[in-house]
Each structure stands twice: as C-alpha cells, then as structure tokens.
C-alpha cells in the first residue's frame, strides 16, 4: 500500500514484509462475499433462508418476562408477506440507516463530513497488487487492486464535485481520475523535509538499521484507461449508536457505527463485531443461557465498543487533519508521512493495528 499527500513532500509505503505476512489484505466484491457466506451457511444444513423478504416491523418484549409467558418474551418480526417470526435474538446488520436500530429505540450520535464518495470499477494499464491512496484537498483518492487489470476507485470529494464526476462522459472521467492520482505525483526531488529526515536516519545507527528497504521506495501508480461500471456515490458521516444491545436485540457493523472510508476500516470493524457476537452467543449456548438476554449480550458490547470507539477517533482525527489545507499543517503532515515511513517498528505497529492483529 502506498499513501502520499497532494503536496508531494511525503509518503508512506507499507508492504506485507513489514509484518511478516503474505498479504496486507484483500479487496473482495460484496456479491462474491455474500455468495460465499450463503453457500457456507447452506452447507450447515441447519439454516433456513427467507429471501427475498422485507421486514415491516420488529416488536421487542419488555425484559421483565417470566418463564410462564415465554412466548410473549420473544421478539416478533413482521414480514411484508404477512408472516410473523418469533425469536430469542434479532441481530440488526442492516446498515447505517438501520431499521432494527430505530425500532429498538437506540439513539445515535455523530455528524456529516460534507463529503461524498464516488465509487466505480476501472481498467488500468498494468496489473498491480498495490492499494494506492493520494490525499487531495477535497479528500482521499484510492485505487484498489482487483483481478487482472481491474481496480476499484473510491474518490472522496465535495458533494458538488461528486455530482459532476457522475455526470461526466467516460473519457472525461478517466482524464479527471488520472489527473487526481498522478499529476505532480510523489515527493518532490530534493525535498528539504525528506532530506532532513533521511539525514537523521542515516546518521543515527539504530534508526539507520530500521529504515526502509529499496522495495519500499516511492512508485508511480498505474494509469487508468477505462471506466467499466456505473459511477455510484454516497454521503460520508460518522455515527455511533448509544447502545449495541438490549433485550432480544444486538447491532453489528454499520448498524452500530459508521466511519470515514479513508482507511478502509468499516468492513473490518463489522467483521470484528460479528466474530465477537458469535463467541458470546456460542458461550451462552454452551452454558444453557438465554442468548437474547441483555446481561449476556452486554459482554459483546463491552468488548466491541472500546475497540470501535478507538478506531473511530483515529479515523475522525485523520479526516480533520487532511481536510485542512494550511501551509504549516501541510508541512507537518508531510514530515509525519516521512517519519512513519522511515521508522520500521512504528510502521509495523500501525499495520498490525489496521489488520486487527493487535
């Protein structure tokens, strides 16, 4: 992965070798992931699919139910075709505008970033396995590798520019994308900041021993040659639910929290939620506990809220730093890029945290 600033004074290049891993991560199409998950669930032979279906209502019982009225103590899900399902636990995994969250009465806090992400798939002039991200004054531009010579674009910009990008011809969009990613690319030769930090590293034995390898030098990104899908967009915001769980309900993923996509951590946080809730439910089953009771589910909330809030604070801080176009801050930002790039142990810690292995 290579990240750099539009000022061109600093960059960071991460490689899997930095953490002794085969890869840093994967870019997987949503339909492929959903298909694989569904296939795996079908293989268990114990899962009933009701799909397609629309949830019209969810009624949650009071937590004061007793064994004598066990049926009334279940959550009731009303479907669009009139069917009503009763269950011990409803998991709200229905996105940032979660209907389950609203019907459970959970409040949220957050704010709009006044930014919009434009997404599409493009063809590039050479096959690559690097995630490229350039921070522009209006937001980050990311080019993410897929298979062969195809890549995904996630272009964060102003709502007005996003509308213009969506309305462009393919030819004009490709030209605009290449300009955003490649024009004046890279650290300027002879940058005094890069030179100063490099001198410190070279003249400090310990730092010199942990500096970047030749493989981590700045590389030019591939050139975009064609946009092959429709361009879609969505507004960016930060949102956090006041509660993740209650009697008969638990929220996971974007239903519980949304973050800025600049580091690609939204789906990773959701995976972490799902894994944690699965462990808690499995433990509840193993000890004969009611899996929809809040006292059991609160274990999941305690574990995930701490992790999610830490990542949300980091991403929100990055967004605010890179959304500010101010000379002294730009210089400090570039110096920070170079410092992290040159200090192997610090870079390793950052990568490990982003990969969820810390």
TrEMBL record:
Gene Ontology BP annotations: carotene biosynthetic process; ubiquinone biosynthetic process; xanthophyll biosynthetic process
Keyword Ubl conjugation belongs to the record: no
Q: Which cofactor does it need?
A: FAD
The record's Gene3D superfamilies line, in alphabetical order, gives: FAD/NAD(P)-binding domain
Task: List GO terms (cellular component aspect).
Answer: mitochondrion
Q: Where is the FAD-binding domain?
A: 78-187, 228-312
Q: Does the keyword Cytoplasm apply?
A: no
Fetch the InterPro entries from UniProt. FAD-bd, FAD/NAD-bd_sf, Ubi_Hdrlase_CS, UbiH/COQ6, UbiH/COQ6_monooxygenase
**GO MF annotations in UniProt:** FAD binding; monooxygenase activity; oxidoreductase activity, acting on paired donors, with incorporation or reduction of molecular oxygen
Q: Name the UniProt key words of this record, in alphabetical order.
A: FAD, Flavoprotein, Monooxygenase, Oxidoreductase
Protein family membership? Belongs to the UbiH/COQ6 family.
Name the NCBIfam families on file: Ubi-OHases (TIGR01988)
Query: What PANTHER family is this protein classified in?
Result: UBIQUINONE BIOSYNTHESIS MONOOXYGENASE COQ6, MITOCHONDRIAL (PTHR43876)
Q: What is the official name of this protein in its record?
A: FAD-binding domain-containing protein
Please tell me the species this chain comes from: Ceratodon purpureus
């Amino acid at each position: 992965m290579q990240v750099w600033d539009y000022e061109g004074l600093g960059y960071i290049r991460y490689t899997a070798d930095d953490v002794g891993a085969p890869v840093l991560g994967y870019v997987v199409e949503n339909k492929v992931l959903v298909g694989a998950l569904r296939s795996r669930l079908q293989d268990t032979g114990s899962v009933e699919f009701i799909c397609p279906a629309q949830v019209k209502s969810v009624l949650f019982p009071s937590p004061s139910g007793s064994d004598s009225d066990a049926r009334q103590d279940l959550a009731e899900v009303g479907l669009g075709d009139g069917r009503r399902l009763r269950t011990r636990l409803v998991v709200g995994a229905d996105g940032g505008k979660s209907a389950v969250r609203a019907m459970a009465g959970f409040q949220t806090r957050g704010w709009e970033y006044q930014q919009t992400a434009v997404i599409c798939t493009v063809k590039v002039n050479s096959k690559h396995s690097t995630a490229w991200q350039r921070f522009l004054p209006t937001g980050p531009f990311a080019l993410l590798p897929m298979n062969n010579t195809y890549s995904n674009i996630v272009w964060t910009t102003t709502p007005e520019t996003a509308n213009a990008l969506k309305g462009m011809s393919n030819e004009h969009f490709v030209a605009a994308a290449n300009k955003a990613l490649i024009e004046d690319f890279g650290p300027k030769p002879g940058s005094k900041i890069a030179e100063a930090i490099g001198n410190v590293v070279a003249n400090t034995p310990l730092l010199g021993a942990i500096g970047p390898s030749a493989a981590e030098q700045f590389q030019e990104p591939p050139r975009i040659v064609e946009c092959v899908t429709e361009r879609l967009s969505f507004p960016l915001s930060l949102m956090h639910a006041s509660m993740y769980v209650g009697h008969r309900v638990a929220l996971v993923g974007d239903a519980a929290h949304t973050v800025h996509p600049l580091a690609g951590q939204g789906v990773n946080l959701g995976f972490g939620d799902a894994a944690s809730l699965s462990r808690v439910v499995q433990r509840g089953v193993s000890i004969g506990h009611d899996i929809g009771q809040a006292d059991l589910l609160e274990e999941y909330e305690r574990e995930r809220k701490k992790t999610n809030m830490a990542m949300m604070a980091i991403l929100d801080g990055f967004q605010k730093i890179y959304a500010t176009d101010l000379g002294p801050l730009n210089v400090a930002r570039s110096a920070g890029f170079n410092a992290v790039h040159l200090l192997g142990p610090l870079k390793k810690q950052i990568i490990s945290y982003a990969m969820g292995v810390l």
